[in-house]
Amino acid sequence: MNLHLKEFNIPQEVLKWGDSQPAHQRQHIGTHIDCYNLSRIEFPSEIDVTVVDVRNLDIIDINILDNISIKEDSFVIFRTGYLENYGYGSEEYFNSKSSPYLTNKLVDKLLDFNVKLIGIDLSGIQHGKDHVAIDKYVENRGAYVIENICNLNKVGSKFKANLKWLQLEGATAIKVEIETL
């Protein structure tokens, strides 16, 4: 099962906007890894994944990890239901005023567990002025944020995934493909 948006899942108006942007900016369309500090990404292509169901929560806080086992060097994805309910590119999907977000305490706890990737089925784990700041913070701690993950309603809560990515010089985002194994 693929967990990344494919070209046909992306509305034409979003693709059109991307075509008018520099190549590095266009990488922010679809499923991607944010790397605002331009770090060279190095992690294994195969990774353990935990999906945490946070549908119907506005604020995703540290208590969501109660009774959830997180492996070191793993990938934790938060399923808010936004992508599956509203569709990528919709006004509701990109409305950061109503979108759920991860608290700083939760992000710190994940980084203390030494996770390598924090994923979400939204356009960011935090929004507005906090979006880029939290992505840089995560990157400075040796991990990365992956945004716009799809098909979370078709997978279990624990599995292995294969990752493929191509890092363009100077890009602040890297398109990524995520396939379950």
Model description:
With 181 residues, the protein is of the alpha/beta class. It has one domain: Glucose Oxidase, domain 1 (3-Layer(bba) Sandwich). Helix content is 23%, strand content 24%. It contains six helices and nine strands. It has helices at residues 12-19, 23-26, 82-86, 91-94, 104-112, 130-140, and strands spanning 32-34, 46-53, 59-60, 75-79, 101-102, 117-120, 144-147, 158-165, 173-180. A seven-stranded mixed beta barrel has the order 1-7-6-4-2-8-9. A two-stranded parallel ribbon has the order 3-5. Strand 8 (158-165) and strand 9 (173-180) form a beta hairpin. The longest helix is centred in the last third of the chain and has 11 residues, at 130-140. It is globular. The model has no long low-confidence stretch (mean pLDDT 88).
Helix-strand blueprint:
Elements: H1 12-19, H2 23-26, E1 32-34, E2 46-53, E3 59-60, E4 75-79, H3 82-86, H4 91-94, E5 101-102, H5 104-112, E6 117-120, H6 130-140, E7 144-147, E8 158-165, E9 173-180
Parallel strand pairs: 2-4, 3-5, 4-6, 6-7
Antiparallel strand pairs: 1-7, 1-9, 2-8, 8-9
